[in-house]
Amino acid sequence: MRITSKGQVTIPQWVREKYGLMPHTDVEFIESDGTVTITPAETPSKPDRAELLLSRLRGSAERSLTTNEIMQLTRAYDDD
After folding, report:
1. Positions of the chain with pLDDT under 70
2. Rounded distance, CA 80 to CA 75, Å?
3. 41 near 28, Cβ under 8 Å?
């Protein structure tokens, strides 16, 4: 792996998938004992893509279901 002239590096796909580093994920760099660790930021600076999609969908259901109705639908798929 090589750092570009702009200080960028490509994180391998398997690492991104394993650790949930999706596009636009805020990360932190933690230095300890001569090692640098990259980790998802505790508090994102702005909403990530999943949060934006969920906020767009929130309240868009055509009808409201009770918790029991949702559980019955979920159990119906388990029987297949």
Report:
1. 44-45, 78-80
2. 9
3. yes
